[in-house]
Specification:
The complex is a heterodimer of chains A (317) and B (321). Chain A is of the alpha/beta class and 317 residues long. Chain A is built from eleven helices and nine strands. Chain A has one domain: Glycerol-3-phosphate (1)-acyltransferase. A seven-stranded mixed beta sheet of chain A has the order 1-9-6-2-5-3-4, sandwiched between helices. Chain A has a two-stranded antiparallel ribbon with strand order 7-8. In chain B, helix 1 crosses helix 6, helix 2 packs across helix 3 and helix 3 packs parallel to helix 4. Chain B is built from twelve helices and 13 strands. In chain B, 50% of the residues are buried. In chain B, strands 3-2-1-4-5-6-11 form a seven-stranded parallel beta sheet, with helices on both faces. Chain B has a two-stranded parallel sheet with strand order 7-10. A two-stranded parallel ribbon of chain B has the order 8-13. In chain B, helix 4 links the parallel strand 5 and strand 6. Chain B is 38% helix and 19% strand. Classes of the chains: A alpha/beta (317), B alpha/beta (321). Chains A and B meet through helix 5, helix 6 and helix 7 of A and strand 12 and helix 7 of B.
């Protein structure tokens, strides 16, 4: 391997050069001489220079050794991002989560209301659970097709642990013992305009409930309050959207006026509430009527939790 | 020599075909019959070679005659182009109609077992694929890749053949991109470029199988009766960008709409198709679930990353540790 060896030689040469120059300037060998009073340690410019050089040289060629999991999540990258994510959660969104203690152990199917354009809610629910229950219990959040195949969003979201929302993926994750955060409202939830905020849309065709029943996994309702305000959609342009490959082109207070900066979410406080698991005692996943009843029950419970969260925010002011 | 199995192999000049024939001729209990358009250079003298053109209208009768004369019991059908050529019509004649001729000949000559080569590309690279495609997932192909469409059609013919001949054994092996020291196909050339183009903003997970693992599975399917459809893949997935960096190459991000405009620059896509037919496979997920294949053919020796490392170090793309 020639790369590291030449790098080592270079570093050595730089260190030698630094020592020599220092000796010449001071007129004596560096290091504390006898009888001298110790002076303040001077800044080693050469060491800094060497370090900077090493960093810039490897900037474009970062080679991550850590392995990805089979869905493309990069645990090493998440570990590096952890301080930034924690800062985002605590300072920008001021996340508060309640009911975390009651979340059952083992694989859990979390079902939450979807809001906001980009999946900040999914990312932060996953981050919150990972930071409280440990990295091994980090749930994977499901995102819609249009988002996971959007340029630039695709590699980033995949590495952060997002998975395309479909039954096969959720089933494989739950079977392998990992939790999943699902947003059954799908694109209808993400594309709600400001006037429809916090009104839960139809919960798909009951896929989440059916999967939970099939695998015998607890279904935990989660309410997300505050994410509607991060990217409030004032208007949807449908005609332009078709050309750009998006399901809709949103007009928000910041997008498209500020260009890419318009994707920066507004710093709204986020309140997560984790409810009791859905009571599914001996329900048959083959019985469509039972599935749709449970699906509606799940939706109304999350709606109640959202309403309660909104009332609490109003009281708090 | 009454206990010897007679194995016919079509498509001797493919990478897989030439290596499979070499492996089979080394076995004392196998007689190998080779069928191809031209005799490959350096073919083992033990191989009973028959020069036949599968695109000929009466190829089915010709192949049946050879199979009957040689008393063939197992046929391995590998006669597919290594990569799509600009001649779409002739590719279709060979890959789809050639497969039909071979299958009809097997019916007529009473061949009891057919091993059929396919590819996981037949699932198609689509935004709505699940992360892991099982063998039961429908083959949706790709509109712009004619070689993939031909495989989808050929596989349809093969499953139709199995349905009409329930007493015979059909093994369909769908392998993902093979890579290894001997690879010389479009993917190998893609990674060997000094600057490797990639679609801007996309970094899909890529799955590879080492050519030795692929060969081992085909050999096993030839010698034993393992009916069914199997995905042949290596364990693990790697993002494309990481593979390119692993090969010590630079990435050239090209905006997807621009790539679409380059449809008249076939050399850019290295195939006769418009670039979508190749680059959509570097854009969307088409990773297959290999668990059924692992159970039937054993654990592969190489993971995706190890297969790629073997390819990179053999081709001396960069110095490896």
């Amino acid at each position: 391997m020639s790369g590291p060896r030449s790098q080592d030689l270079l570093d050595e040469a730089l260190a030698d050069l630094g020592r020599e120059i220092r000796e010449r300037f001071d007129g004596r060998p560096s290091g504390p001489g006898e009888g001298e009073e110790p002076k303040a340690p001077d800044v080693d410019v050469f060491a800094i220079f060497g370090e900077l050089r090493a960093r810039t040289r490897t900037l474009g060629m970062r080679e991550r050794r850590g392995e990805l999991d089979e869905f493309g999540m990069d645990p090493e990258w998440i570990e590096q991002l952890r301080p930034a994510l924690s800062l985002l959660a605590s300072r920008w969104f001021r996340v508060r989560a309640e009911g975390l203690a009651e979340v059952p152990d083992g694989p859990v199917l979390f079902v939450a209301n979807r809001s906001g354009l980009l999946p900040w809610d999914g990312l932060l629910v996953a981050h919150q659970l990972a930071s409280v229950r440990g990295e091994a219990a980090r749930p994977r959040f499901l995102v819609a097709d249009w988002l996971i195949t959007l340029p630039f969003a695709q590699p980033t979201l995949t590495r952060l642990g997002a998975v395309r929302a479909c039954r096969e993926n959720a089933e494989q994750l739950l079977r392998s013992g990992r939790s999943v955060v699902a947003f059954p409202e799908g694109v209808k939830g993400a594309s709600k305009t400001w006037g429809e905020r916090y009104k839960l849309q139809r919960f798909g065709r009951g896929g989440a409930v059916r999967l939970g029943l099939d695998l015998g996994v607890p279904i935990v309702p989660v309410s997300v309050v505050g994410a509607e305000e991060t990217q409030p959609i004032l208007y949807k342009v449908e005609s332009l959207a078709r050309a750009s490959g998006l399901p809709f082109l949103p007009i928000t207070p910041t997008f498209p006026w500020l260009g890419p900066l318009g994707f920066v979410p507004l710093p709204s406080r986020l309140d997560f509430a984790f409810g009791h698991p859905l009571d599914v005692e001996d329900s048959d996943p083959r019985d469509e009527l039972v599935v749709s009843r449970l699906n509606e029950e799940l939706r109304s419970r999350i709606q109640q939790m959202v309403d309660a969260g909104l009332a609490a925010r109003r009281e708090a002011g | 020599m009454s206990s010897a199995t007679t194995v016919a192999v079509t498509g001797l000049r493919t990478e897989l075909g030439s290596r499979l024939v070499a492996r089979l001729t080394a076995r004392p209990d196998v007689v190998v019959v080779g069928i191809d358009h031209q005799r490959p250079w350096g073919l083992d003298a033990a191989v009973r070679f028959h020069g036949l053109d599968l695109t000929h209208p009466t190829a089915d009768a010709d192949v049946a005659e050879v199979l009957r004369k040689e008393d063939v019991t197992v046929l391995v059908h590998l006669a597919f182009r290594r990569e799509p050529t600009p001649d779409v019509e002739s590719d279709h004649e060979l890959e789809t109609l050639g497969s039909l001729h071979v299958l009809d000949a097997c019916t007529a000559a009473g061949v009891s077992r057919v091993v059929f080569a396919s590819t996981t590309m037949a699932y198609g690279a689509r935004p709505d694929n699940p992360n892991y495609l099982t063998e039961d997932h429908p083959l949706r192909g790709h509109r712009a890749a004619h070689n993939v469409q031909n495989r989808v059609e050929a596989e349809g013919l093969a499953s139709e053949w199995a349905r009409r001949n329930p007493d015979r054994c059909l093994t369909v092996l769908r392998h993902c991109w093979t890579l290894g020291p001997g690879s010389r196909h479009a993917m190998a050339r893609y990674f060997a470029r000094p600057v490797v183009p990639m679609l801007m903003g996309y970094d899909p997970l890529i799955q590879l199988i080492h050519e030795d693992d692929c060969l081992r599975a085909f050999e096993r399917a030839t010698l034993e009766s393992i009916p069914g459809v199997y995905n042949l893949v290596g364990r693990g997935v790697q993002p494309l960008s990481r593979l390119i960096r692993h090969a010590g190459k630079r990435v050239l991000p090209v905006p997807a709409p621009l790539m679409h405009r380059l449809r008249y620059a076939p050399s850019f896509a290295q195939t006769g198709d418009e670039p979508d037919g190749f680059y959509d496979f570097l854009r969307y997920l088409w990773v297959a679930d290999g668990s059924r294949g692992f159970a039937a053919f054993g654990e592969p020796d190489y993971t995706t990353k190890e297969a790629f490392t073997a390819f990179v170090s053999e081709r001396k793309l960069r110095e490896m540790q």
